[in-house]
Automatic annotation (TrEMBL):
One example GO MF annotation: pyridoxal phosphate binding
Pfam families for the chain: PALP, Thr_synth_N
Keyword Lyase (UniProt): yes
Family matches, as PROSITE patterns: DEHYDRATASE_SER_THR
Cofactor(s), names only, from the UniProt record: pyridoxal 5'-phosphate
Similarity-based family: Belongs to the threonine synthase family.
EC number: 4.2.3.1
Catalytic activity reported: O-phospho-L-homoserine + H2O = L-threonine + phosphate
Record organism: Buchnera aphidicola
Any GO BP: threonine biosynthetic process
Pathway this chain belongs to: Amino-acid biosynthesis; L-threonine biosynthesis; L-threonine from L-aspartate: step 5/5
Descriptive protein name: Threonine synthase
Keywords for the protein's UniProt record, in alphabetical order: Amino-acid biosynthesis, Lyase, Pyridoxal phosphate, Threonine biosynthesis
């Protein structure tokens, strides 16, 4: 697989190098040079396969010969070793595609766990990797669990002290072993700024083998392509399929569009955001004008400068698709809350991120279409909001209940780069 840097077409590298580097020169994203399309007859065969067999097939079509199929099989099996997507009917013509049955109850498990397999493949030659990531919640947990006990990998996760929920904190700050967590006395932006500073320090990067594991990493996106195929296979609908995606950094949507580019018959997508509506405003007006980030109840989508958007526009232009055909919309907290109640009334307990997508899908779906909205996280992860809004006491799954009884192992640090640097070198 060859990929090029979106900011410098001449920088072209293979898949494994792209996973290792994360970003190219000038902070450019890597994008596939070839966009393989599966012939119709073959597509039918692939759709009929089981999830794991099909995922190996799709990833080998994308990645090519860089990783032996026998090895890829092993990696996919280890990465996706949890219940895959589930389609749950919500109304007559809309179902939720639940992607949250993995170890940290969010769709990020698919991408993070596949990336962990590729990193350990790269580390076979005894390199060591330091994964340094900032998190406002879900990414930290998915990455920590994906790399837990990986050989030659040290994981360091920064998070804003007191600004993530106690359930979220317990999920990744109680693991120990090769997972180190640091509560930063500051905001999420300050955590992210520290990570950026570390990546800009070439010497430090070399010495510690830094990698970030966030959704700019191409391995995460490729893994996510697999569940769109599974969603299609499980839906078994004769109607045209439209998928509403709750978007933050737009990695999930990019993966869905890649699946479509491979020939998966998805009629259209709806890019759903909360009040952080840079993309919906851009699609409406043609003007890219990010405002300051606003805190909402769908906090994993509180991003006003989405990292993966350049990949979305590149794909539309490469495929000669019309960007006007991309559905979009933004939903306020007030309407999201109302939507959660509406969903409860029709018998489906959801959470704020999926509710944003459902709300737009419900309003935009046409008669001849069948709709899926992506359930990106388990509602119990947002117990504090869900219990209050729906007046219920949502039970905690074991994955959340157990860690919340364990001691928090986090270090504590002021947002100071020299201190972090010293820590990374130690
Ligand atoms: C990360 C996340 C999103 C946003 O996904 P992107 O790929 O960044 O667009 C949406 N919902 C939940 C629950 C998340 O954790």
């Amino acid at each position: 697989m060859k990929l090029y840097n979106l900011k410098n077409y001449c920088e072209q590298i293979n898949f494994l190098k792209a996973v290792k580097m994360g970003l190219g020169n000038n902070q450019g994203l890597f994008f596939p040079l070839n966009l393989p399309k599966i012939p119709k007859k073959k597509l039918q065969e692939i759709i009929e396969m089981d999830f794991l067999t099909r995922s190996v097939k799709i990833l080998s079509i994308l990645i090519g010969s860089e990783i032996k199929t026998s090895e890829l099989k092993k990696y996919v099996k280890q990465a996706f070793s949890f219940p895959g997507p589930k389609i749950v009917p919500v109304t007559k013509n809309i179902s939720c595609c639940e992607l949250f049955h993995g170890p940290t109850l969010a769709f990020k498990d698919f991408g993070a766990r596949f990336m962990a397999q590729i990193i350990s493949h790269l580390n076979k030659k005894n390199n060591t990797t330091t994964i340094l990531t900032a998190t406002s919640g879900d990414t930290g947990a998915a990455v920590a669990h994906a790399f837990y006990k990986s050989k030659n990998v040290r994981v360091i996760i920064l998070y804003p002290k007191g600004k993530i929920s106690t359930l979220q904190e317990a999920l990744f700050c109680t693991l120990g072993e090769n997972i180190t967590t640091i509560a930063i006395d500051g905001s999420f932006d300050e955590c992210q700024a520290l990570v950026k500073q570390a990546f800009n320090d070439n010497k430090l990067r070399q010495e510690t083998g830094l990698n970030s594991a966030n959704s700019i990493n191409i391995s995460r996106l490729l893994a996510q392509v697999c569940y769109f195929f599974e969603a299609y296979a499980l839906t078994k609908q004769k109607k045209k399929l439209v998928i509403a995606v709750p978007c933050g950094n737009f990695g999930n949507l990019t993966a869905g569009l890649l699946a479509k580019s491979m020939g998966l018959p998805i009629q259209s997508f709806i890019a759903a955001t909360n009040a952080n509506d840079t993309v919906p405003r851009f699609l409406k007006t043609g003007i890219w004008n990010p405002y300051n980030c606003i805190s909402t109840i769908s906090n994993a989508m509180d991003i006003s400068r989405p990292n993966n958007w350049p990949r979305v526009t590149e794909l539309f232009s490469r495929k000669k698709w019309n960007l006007n055909k991309l559905g979009f919309g933004s939903v306020s907290d007030q309407i999201t809350t109302q939507t959660l109640l509406d969903l409860q009334k029709i018998g489906y307990i959801s959470e704020p991120h999926a509710a944003v997508a459902y709300q737009l899908l419900k309003n935009q779906i046409k008669k001849d279409e069948f709709g899926l909205f992506l359930g990106t996280a388990h509602p119990a992860k947002f117990k504090n909001i869900i219990d209050k809004v729906l007046n219920i006491n949502i039970p905690l799954p074991k994955t959340l209940a157990e860690p919340s009884t364990l001691p928090i192992l986090s270090h504590y640090m002021k947002p100071n780069f020299e201190k972090l640097k010293k820590f990374l070198k130690s």
